[in-house]
Amino acid sequence: MAPPVSSFGKSSLRPQLDLQVSPSLTNSDDEQELAVADLLIAAAEGDVPSAKKFAKKLVLAGIGVDEAVAAVDDPGSKRRGPLHLAAAAGKAEVCALLVEEFHADVDAADVEGATPLIFAVQGMGSTAVVGLLLCYGANANKADNGGIVPLHIVAERGSYALAELLLSNGAEIDPICEKIGSPVHIAAENGNAGVLKLLLQHDADCDRFSSLFNTPLAASAFGSSLECMEILIEAGADVNSGSPETPLMIAAGKGSIACIKCLLKAGADANIPDESGKVPVEIAALKGQEECVEILFPVTTPLAEYADWSIDGIVRHGKIVRLRQAYKIKAEGDAAFKKKDYLLASSRYTQALDMDSADSTLYAKRSLCFQQMNDKEKALADANTFRQRQPDLPESSEEEGTAMKLVECDACCWSGKGTQRQSKGSSSGRGAATTQ
Predict the structure, then answer these.
(1) Does 298 reside within a domain?
(2) 11, 161, 171, 244: least CB-packed within 10 angstroms?
(3) CB within 8 A of 431, min separation 6: which ones?
(4) Taking the model in full, what pTM does it have?
């Protein structure tokens, strides 16, 4: 029986779930570990007869299912038992078998602190499995090592039915995790209006503060979720809450015109500055959001430091500041590259691109970083972007020359398709010297 491979269970809150049983466990010389491996595979596949067979084998050997999992000497297994895998895969019958006949612990934690209930909501999200685990006494408020509880994940996924199940079985309405906030923050950021309404109906705090997003309204602005923003405002959320960033500042930086209009209509103050003293209209200008500047300009008090207090003047000033910042960050990237810190260099070039997307040389520089890190796909993508931006530009630097050569030889060197072509200026060897 081949171990199942799974690519589901993606979440921005927790590591992605993987139902692949550790190869070192399936190839173990220990009979007990082999029985555990077979049980894990059967549980993930929902094979009730096989799961029963291998669980009985462990019991007859004088060890329970949970004890056998805990005894496995394999870091790759991560102490995930058959109940974890069956719950994630939505296999209710196997879950029932393991709990009722073999007394599996419904709150057993893996090495990351995740319980079968967390696996259930992050995996298939089966209401049958979640309901079953709760019926068997699973703790709806047991968090993993990062402080994440099932309701956080459900708020991210937007499952109204699962949220109802958890709340009706004792889930706390406002559990806070410093890294991600409360379920209200998460639902608002991800635009899950139905779950957000349900949480508010259960008296969730619409102004709950977290270190990441400040308030749920700020989270809705970060996610550019107009519907969630409107729901929170209707629930009485403070439109000017948040430090160092108000929801209006976030919306201005994101270029979310609808959210800016919504906040202004609800009474948001466009003159509250951030920690550096910038007001929303300046933030919009720094981000190149000209239409947002036009909306915010009439409700912003003139600033004395601007010689030209006009829409054009603010946009022009923002562009100058943005390009200066991009130049500085680009220089930091160059310095990091010289020190062979390619990860930092690529990060700086990405930041510079966010500020000055017209500087095509940044793609060439970042392409060379990716090449040095052996990330061929990203290296080629950036090289292609550079070539498309500058189709007739001869190689004027080492990075640009290398980027050109990557485009010319991509088929032969990496994909095995097409024919290598002679690039302009390739006889100089300048770019080729750095291409490995």
Answers:
(1) no
(2) 244
(3) 395, 398, 400, 401, 402, 403, 404, 405
(4) 0.82
